[in-house]
Structures are given as structure tokens and as C-alpha cells.
Amino acid sequence: MSEKKIKNIFVNGAISPAFIADSIAKHATKTAIGGHSIFMGQIRRDEINGKFVAGIDYTAYEELALSQMDAIREEIFLKYPLNCMHVHHSLGMISAGEICLFVFTSSAHRKPAIEACNELVERIKAELPIWGKEIFEDDTHQWKENI
Amino acid sequence: MSEKKIKNIFVNGAISPAFIADSIAKHATKTAIGGHSIFMGQIRRDEINGKFVAGIDYTAYEELALSQMDAIREEIFLKYPLNCMHVHHSLGMISAGEICLFVFTSSAHRKPAIEACNELVERIKAELPIWGKEIFEDDTHQWKENI
Amino acid sequence: MEMNMKLEIISFGKISEFIGHQQVEISNVTDTDQLKSYLETSFPELVGMKYKLAVNQNMIQSNQSLKNEDKVAIMPPFSGG
Amino acid sequence: MEMNMKLEIISFGKISEFIGHQQVEISNVTDTDQLKSYLETSFPELVGMKYKLAVNQNMIQSNQSLKNEDKVAIMPPFSGG
Predict the structure, then answer these.
(1) Residue D60 belongs to some domain of the structure
(2) Does B38 touch chain A (CB under 8 A)?
(3) Which of A104, C51, C67, D62 has an alpha carbon 20 to 30 Å from B110's alpha carbon atom?
(4) What is the reported pTM?
(5) Residue C30 belongs to domain with CATH number
């Protein structure tokens, strides 16, 4: 059996633009790459019944989420000729306007990066055991549901 | 008639990760946004007949490209419910590993941002009068063609 | 013959607001369908909710037998991303 | 009757390697199809190449008449992005 290290996609708190810039900059030495596709999820200050969302508090079944993500990663690498794939998801309280999801794919030509990125976002939302609790500005809450 | 300022998409030289981070950070106050989609084109160090590409020297028919881009921008804003759209393209010599195209779209929900970003990339490549001269490491060159 | 089984129960999302992390010792439960009935009797808030189980970190798609010391997660619909 | 027309010619990409920015004064050319023939005679490298014209910053899709002082761009296939 191969020894496999499961990658941790979780970060505590919001994903900063500086972190994203650093991740992009690291690819400058990978000169076989011709196209990068990025998706970022940002917390909306939605108004629901007259109350505004202050942020979302994310929790996850971390061990299961990481093994699910590992299987998804393998399937995506088999399906698309990618050079790189990076996924980061926030845990804890993320305020409106902050970034909670960062998906980053790279390939020699643009199409595989774009298609893999889209598929990853769909699968992350549908298949990873992560839950978002919308915290309103008056400290009440409701649980988010992906539809 | 409305007074319209045509946006300049052209930047001299490569697009830096710091510029991209700054562009992302500026959206933190736009709390109606839920999803951002980014495409970045990066110069490949392709090997062609035993010679390696050192970089691509971009030129454009700038006035025409900007008016074409302006029309594309209007069409995309009519077609998709976007909050933001940003396009930047390099001119001049861009070295292998550097970023020459940055397309950035944002919307309340993910799908419009993703679809608009993809459509923008296709249209930029097909419709904007921009030319890339591939410069090899031995200073010879060949003109790139989008296929 | 009465069968006794010890299970560890964990829960997430809105279900964690009424089912806490706990060890249960139950009888006459040998598979996940029976466990669901047991849970819905013990925690009536579950009735009518959509939820999935994972046993020892494997998502359960159809009925599956349980064994002593299994760790069962009760999960409402996911909302990551 | 002979018609004389002054045109400004600009070119891009690989075409700029053999057609420089220039003013031309030509006769018996009144539309873009005739201009293409004139260009392909003057610059035989153009023959067999794919290229498009723009007149006064408008892309030309089908034959169009020309007038004195028009600015014509000769453009090989685009390769931005």
C-alpha cells in the first residue's frame, strides 16, 4: 500500500487576499502552466426578514471531509490534465465581505483548469460535510442550506 | 447621449500577484457578492523545434481593442447578473511564468460569475486585436496564433 | 435473546443543537435503519428532517449492519462553500 | 475618369514585418475588396495569409466602400490572452 498524506483543506478564519497572492506567486516557476482558474466564495451580508447576516460560522466533520476531498482530488486529477489543484475552506466565524472558499486549478491550456475548477466547486458544496451557521447582527442565527 | 469613459484594459508588462491581491481585497466592502471567478493566463516556456520560449511580446491595436472590449463588457453585463467585471491584459515583453491576462467577475451567486468569466476569456482571445510574438531563448521569434 | 450494543453518537450543524456527543447503549438495534428509528423516537426533532449517517467515517447510502463500538455521525444537509 | 484616393495604412503582428505604417495614394480603388487586391499585388507575402481589415477602427466583415483619408488597419489572426 502506498503511504498517503491527506492534505488539510481547512484554515481557521477567513482566507486573506495576501494568502491568495502568495499561492498565485508560487506558480511562477511552473512554466508548463498556461492557464489558472480560481473560484472564491465570499460571505454575503444578506437581509433575511429584516435582519442582516453579520457572518457565517463554519464547522465540519473534519476527518470525513478530508477523506472525501482526497477522493474528489484523485478523481479530478484522473479526469483533467491538471498541473496543480489547491482547495482551502474556512472554519470558524467569517464576517460578511471575507473569503471562505478558495479553489485554484492550473493546466497547460485553459479548458481543463476552468472545467476542473467548476466541478470542484460543485462537488465541495454537495459532498463535503461542512455546515454554515448564519449569524445575524442581533446574534440570532439560522443554519444555511446549499440548494 | 451618455458620456462614456472607455476603460483601459492594457497594462505595460506582467500582471503581478500583488496587483491581483489588491483587486480581490477591494471587493471586501461589496457585501452583496457571494462568488468570484478569476482566470489568469500565464506564459508557458514551450519547447518548439528544440528551442524554448523565453517570453511573449504583446502588441495591440489599442483603440480598436478597447472599443471592442467595451462592447463585450456591455453585452456580458446585460447577459449575466454581475456585480463586478475586471479585465487586464499585458502589453510588451512578458517572461515565461509571468501572468499576461487577468479576468475577474463577481456575482451574488456563483454561476453568473463563473459563466461570465469563461465567456469573457473566449471572447477576449477571439475578438480583441492583440498579437503575441513568441521570443525564443536564442532571440529568434514566431508569431503566436490562437486556435 | 436481547442484543446490547454500545455506540458513540456525534452530530453536526443544526442537529448538534439537540443531540449532543454521547455514548449510547441500546438493544435490538443491529443496523442503521433500526438506529434511525431509535434516534427518531429518542429525538423527535429529527422526524421530517433530512439527515445522513456516517459510520466510522463512511457515508451510509443504504442500510448497513452495525457492530459494537461503532462511531455514528448524524449529519444534516451540507452547506459548505 | 481616374479617381485618386489617399489612405493611411497601418499593420499589426507578423504583417507589420513587411508592411510598415504608410500613406498611400492610389487610383481605381473605391472599396475594401479592391484595396485587398491592390495590397496583395503590392505585398505578395499577403497572398494566402488570413487577415482582416479595419477601416477607421471598425472591423470590416464584408466589402465596404472607402473614402479619401480613411485609415485602414491590416490585421493577422488575433493571439491575445
Answers:
(1) yes
(2) yes
(3) C51
(4) 0.95
(5) 3.10.20
